[in-house]
Design brief:
heterodimer; A: mainly beta; Archaeosine Trna-guanine Transglycosylase, Chain: A, domain 4; four-stranded antiparallel sheet; 0% helix; B: alpha/beta; Rossmann fold; seven-stranded parallel sheet; four-stranded parallel sheet; 14 strands; globular
């Protein structure tokens, strides 16, 4: 069963639609990726190499930028992805309009 | 591409030309002091399409007034019983007049003037018995998707909501708009970070400004309320950034152009996709904009929604007075556990048993089924939640409805 789902064709990440276990294999773009840790429902996996500073696209829109190079198949989360807004938006700040 | 079945859809024709998919009687209390009498009356007619709504406040509020006027003349409503104590400040005579002018049977029972609880209950029961007979003669006519208005809320979200139920509802919304219908989304507090993407979908530049301002207002309002937006559980569930969380909620709006912006109780006069701005204007005065899902649902209905789509991951069970609520369950495990409460199992997308598009179509088909006599899970279980509190709004400007 395919454990990854691409929500929008523009996305550069997959969402996990079925929990991943260590040792699970998945072919992504013709390249075989072997996962080394368990990853739960809803977590993100790079669908292709994402360079540091490049925007991560999910739902067809940017959801933040990579803070390091992310290889294809790697877990995309707080350690390598940062909001383009306010890193975890704190609501006690005046609203800042996007550029 | 789509193969929607639109046969034998029936609506109840009202004098203003709107068509309802239900023909029910509303019992409305106009202050909390009249709540018990109203409830005693409505429970006499259990399972007979008699729904209880009301406003508990004794102080006047123009928002609540507008909501009650809109709800009592909703196209799903055939007749109305107003239950007043007698000394509250709600403008009962104007509400009664609004309902009369809409051509619906209406009666105002004043508990003080009729001589107390028991007499008020008896008068109310008499009226409803005759009203139920009278509304059987409301003309039944054909209705199509292009004449339906559908709202959406989400509640009890989890990591699956943004992957299954919400994009599926987005597809359903696009299908509704393609077919000439009307769809309403709300909760600007969940669009913080997306105001540019959302406002880019506006049909005019002036409307785009209004949409953007509405989200900015939400950001300020929630900031004053001290209500955070990213909980530790979000990250645990795989959500990394605020944009991502907002987008998970936002994708239920689909990809159609946004035709206008309304506030609760405003009824769009044209078809299309609308943002409902639910955040009060001015500084916070009465608490959180919508303290629970039911108050959001009531606002969508007041703005003319025939039915409301409710996406849930963890599993909400609520329905609503006046309009059916369709529960779209995001999480396949929740669906399995709470199947009797869930109308649509969007979680099967995760198991590759259906595509987002297929579930979107299934949702629209479910909406259509409501116009051919079928009930939602919450209707069958007797849910009739209703919540209405205090709010303050400025009227919308001309650029909101181009």
């Amino acid at each position: 069963m395919n454990k990854l789902i691409k929500i929008n064709p523009l996305d550069n990440v997959f969402a996990i639609c079925n929990g991943i276990l260590p040792g699970d294999e998945q072919e992504i773009d013709g390249v075989l990726v072997v996962f080394d840790k368990p990853l739960g429902l809803g977590h993100k996996i790079a669908a292709r190499p994402i360079l540091k500073g490049e925007q991560v696209i999910k739902f067809g829109v940017p959801i933040g930028s990579a803070i390091e190079d992310i290889p294809r198949g790697a877990h995309v989360h707080l350690h390598n992805l940062k909001s383009d807004y306010i890193s975890t938006y704190t609501l006690d700040h005046e609203f800042i309009s996007p550029k | 591409m789509s193969s929607l079945v639109q046969n034998n859809l029936k609506g109840y024709l009202r004098q203003d030309g709107r068509k309802g998919i239900r023909n029910l009687v509303v019992v409305a209390y106009l202050v909390e002091c009249a709540h018990h009498v109203a409830r005693e009356i409505s429970t006499q007619f259990r399972n007979q399409q008699v729904h209880l709504i009301g406003f508990g406040g004794c102080y006047p509020n123009s928002y609540a007034d507008k909501m009650m006027n809109a709800l009592c003349t909703h196209q799903n409503v055939g007749a109305v019983l107003l239950v007043s104590l007698g000394c509250e400040s709600f403008n009962r005579l104007r509400l009664q007049q609004t309902i009369e002018e809409s051509g619906r049977p209406v009666k105002l029972v004043g508990i003080q003037s009729v001589g107390g609880t028991r007499k008020a209950i008896d008068e109310g029961i008499d009226f409803i018995s005759s009203a139920l007979e009278e509304i059987k003669s409301v003309p039944v006519v054909n209705i199509s998707l292009s004449e339906l208005s559908v709202g959406v809320v989400c509640g009890g979200s989890d990591a699956t909501s943004g992957i299954t139920s919400n994009p599926a509802v987005g597809n359903a919304f696009d299908l509704i708009i393609e077919n000439g219908g009307t769809a309403i989304f709300e909760n600007t507090g969940e669009m913080i970070g997306l105001e540019k993407i959302m406002s880019n979908r506006a049909t005019t530049p002036l409307l785009a400004d209004e949409l953007k301002k509405a989200v900015e207002k939400a950001a300020k309002y929630y900031s004053i309320m001290g209500h955070g937006s990213f909980a530790p559980g979000n990250a645990e569930g795989g959500l990394t950034t605020l944009e991502e969380k907002s987008m998970g909620a936002y994708c239920k709006t689909g990809n159609s152009p946004v035709s206008g912006m309304i506030k609760p109780g405003d009824i769009p006069q044209k078809t299309g996709l609308y943002l409902m701005d639910i955040v009060p204007d001015g500084n916070p005065r009465f608490g959180f904009p919508n303290p629970n899902d039911s108050s959001e649902i009531a606002e969508l209905i007041a703005s003319g929604a025939h039915c409301v789509l409710f996406t849930t991951g963890r599993g909400s069970v609520v329905g609503s007075a006046i309009a059916p609520v369709i529960k779209v369950c995001a999480n396949p495990e929740t669906f399995k556990r709470m199947e009797e409460d869930m109308d649509i199992n969007a979680g099967k997308i995760l198991y590759n048993q259906a595509t987002i598009k297929e579930v979107g179509q299934e949702i629209v088909q479910k909406i259509l089924s409501l116009a051919s006599g079928q009930q939602t899970c919450s209707e069958m279980l007797g849910h009739q939640e209703f919540v209405l509190g205090y709010k303050t709004f400025e009227p919308i400007g001309p650029s909101c409805l181009p």
